[in-house]
Each structure stands twice: as structure tokens, then as C-alpha cells.
Amino acid sequence: MPQNTIVRFVKRPLGLVDERSFAIESAPTPQPADGQILLRNFYHSLDPYMRPRMTETDSYIAPFEVGQIMEGGGLGVVVESRHPDYKPGDVVRGMLQWAEYQAASPGVVMRKLESGGVAWKDYLGVLGAASLTAYVGLKLIGEPEAGETLYVSAASGAVGSIAVQIGRIMGCRVVGSAGSDEKVAWLRNELGLDAAFNHRTVTSMDAAIARHCPEGIDIDFENVGGKTLQAALDHIRPHGRIIMCGAISEYNEPGPGLERVFRIVSHKVRMQGFIVSEHFDKIPAFTTEMAKWRKEGRIKYRETVVEGLENMPRALVGLFRGDNFGKLLARVGDEPN
Ligand SMILES: NC(=O)c1ccc[n+]([C@@H]2O[C@H](COP(=O)([O-])OP(=O)(O)OC[C@H]3O[C@@H](n4cnc5c(N)ncnc54)[C@H](OP(=O)(O)O)[C@@H]3O)[C@@H](O)[C@H]2O)c1
Q1: Which residues contact 284 (CB under 8 A, 6 or more apart)?
Q2: Which tens digit of pLDDT belongs to each residue from 34-59?
Q3: Is residue 226 a contact partner of residue 132, using CB atoms and an 8 Å limit?
Q4: Half-sphere exposure of residue 128, counting CA atoms within 13 Å on the CB side?
Q5: Residues with C-beta less than 6 Å from any ligand 1 atom
Q6: What confidence category does residue 169 fall into, taking pLDDT thresholds of 50, 70 and 90?
Q7: pLDDT score, position 271
Q8: Beta strand residue intervals within 223-285, DSSP E
Q9: Cβ atoms within 10 Å, residue 112
């Protein structure tokens, strides 16, 4: 067996995460025990939630332990099996280590995949958790109706870019914000949004929302938090819904805190958080609808792919600067046939 490359989490960041929280190491390739499989990992998903996991806090998922091998959603191919249900060549999606090779115990968090005529990486991308998040957040919590105004922050990202397109399919007037003129042009020209703006260059979020949502917001698909959420709340319409999907502006540093909270009462607003892993029962419905929309050409999709395990820490840090355009993935090994 060849030597194994791994990425270890070695230091809890204070404030903005940087590459010093990670160490790239060489280690012996593990041997699978009875009931285990040996995986060669070939794709990884890089996601904002990884930053809150670096802080010791009470959350829906345990924090990373200092010294552990980093982990996240990934794809691996079985190279050796000591499990009756798996054979070499099977491909799995699951919570995988940032490692070339790992011994793993298949369980509920690891599913065997059929290639199904799509690229393997689509199972982390357009058919993956971020797209499912957009689907369940918008449909189950947002409950959009045709003609309503939907505002989506981080709109060119993995979740946001799918949320805006499902919003359009459902007949909403869709407004998005993103962090570069190139991203804004894509939202307007390729995804067909009714309006989009660059949150880095506007004079204020409040003025931008007032200008682009003159009738107010019926549904806020909130990915950013902080002053973005404040502006959305200040322009929410009666019986509006705030889908609390994420608050990326608050993952490295605490946010400013919400003001004018009484507006939630006066405007009878429903504000609800959710975590996609509680909605995996919606995967079949999501997969069917997404396949149909893609066939009809109604869903466009972008991704940023970095090469190699050793570049994953830098890419993760870049998520918090907006370096990615669409879903951020890392290709860490050759794809199986
Ligand atoms: N609830 C759930 O189950 C669930 C599941 C998946 C994701 N999420 C959440 O959904 C949100 C989007 O995740 P994603 O995977 O789709 O990531 P993403 O949008 O593909 O990437 C993150 C983007 O956020 C923007 N951003 C970063 N820091 C920012 C800041 N301080 N202020 C404003 N914008 C900032 C950047 O885009 P710009 O260039 O546009 O600034 C960056 O590219 C995150 O909050 C994430 O935690 C929630």
C-alpha cells in the first residue's frame, strides 16, 4: 500500500480562519478491520459549516477535535472490502476524511451510489446537499406563491444559485445579491433574475433592497446574516417568511445583532431555521424534480473545482472571501470509470 496523505485540523482559529489551522501530513495507509471497507477518496465538498465546527460550541453537529483528520462530504471508491455488502469498485458518498485513503464502517451516513448517467461529482454538486438545501428551504419553509418577491443572499453560490432558479420556476419575482460584478452579471443574464446587485459596492444594503425590492420582500432566503438579514427584515412584507439557511458573515466573528425585532411581530413574520440533514427523506422527490428541470434546461449550474488535498485548506479559507463561484469542490484523486 502507498503512503497516505491526510489533512489534520491542528488549531482552533480565532476570527478569520486561515491555513495555520491545518497540517498536511504523510501517514501509513490504514488497513480495514472486519466489517470495514478501504476507500480511495476522489472528490470532496468544501462548505461554510466547517468554520462553525472549528469552534467549541453547542450545535447540531459535534465540533472538530484538535488533532483529528478533517472530514466533510465526499466521494470514495472501495479498493478493498471486508464488508459483505461492498465490493471493490463500488462508489460511496458520505462524511469522509480529508485523506487519500481511509478505512470506514459503512452506515447510515454513507450511501452506495449508482452512476445513473451523471458525473460522479454531481452527487456532491447539483444533486448534492447544497442543492437539496435550496429545495427544502424554499419549498417547505418559504412556501412561495407566484408573484411573490423572493430575495436570496449569496445568490451565486451553491445553495443560492439553486434557490433563485427554483424561485423563478415557482413564479416568484427573484432578486439576488453577490460579491462581484461578474457574479451579478451571471445572475441577471444567465439565470434571468429580475434584479441583482453587488453587496460589496452598494452604498448600503438597506438602499439596495429598497431599490430592487420596491414592494418589499415576501420571502428572504437568508444565507449571510448580519447586516444582510437586518436589511431584509427592515423590508419584509406582512406575513413574510425568513428562511434561516445560514449566516456566513457571522461564522468567523460574531454578528452585530438584530435590531427592530418587533417588526417580526408587527408584520406577522415567520422566521425559521433548518438543517438539511433532517430532510434526507426528500432526496427522492428532489432528485426526480431536479432531473426534470435540468432536462428542460431550467437549472443552470456552476462550480469551482480545486485540485489536490493539499489545496483544500486554502480553498476553504477562500469561501469566506467569495473566491468560489458556484459550488466549491476539491478533486483529490482520479475518478473511477
Ligand atoms: N441549513 C443548512 O442545512 C445549510 C446547508 C448548506 C449550506 N447552508 C448555508 O448556506 C449558505 C451558503 O452556503 P453555500 O454552500 O452555498 O456556500 P457558497 O454560497 O457557495 O459560498 C459562500 C459564499 O458566501 C459569500 N460570503 C462569504 N462571506 C461573506 C460575508 N461576510 N458577507 C457576505 N457574503 C459572504 C461569498 O459569496 P459572494 O462573493 O457573493 O460574497 C461566498 O462565495 C451558508 O450560510 C451555509 O452555511 C446551510
Answers
A1: none
A2: 999 999 999 999 999 999 999 999 99
A3: no
A4: 30
A5: 47-49, 130, 133, 154, 156-160, 178-180, 183, 199, 223-224, 245-249, 274-276, 319-320, 322, 324, 328
A6: very high
A7: 98
A8: 236-244, 270-273
A9: 14
Strand-pairing partners, residue 23, are: 8
- What are the cell numbers at 318? 477562500
Kindly give the pairing relationship between strand 149-152 and strand 22-27.
unpaired
Query: Which residue lies with its CA nearest to atom 38 of ligand 1?
Result: 179
CA gap 86, 88 in Å, rounded = 7
CA–CA separation, 98 and 235 (whole Å)? 42
Nearest CA to ligand 1 atom 7: 130
Number of helices (H), then strands (E), belonging to the chain: the values are 8, 15
List, in order, residues 6 or more apart from 206 with CB less than 8 Å away. Answer: 230, 231, 234, 235
- Which of 54, 223, 327 for a ligand 1 pocket mutation test, highest count of atoms within 8 Å of Cβ? 223
Q: Are 286 and 136 in contact (CB under 8 A)?
A: yes
- In one letter, which amino acid is 45? S
Per DSSP bridges, beta strands 91-97 and 110-113 are antiparallel
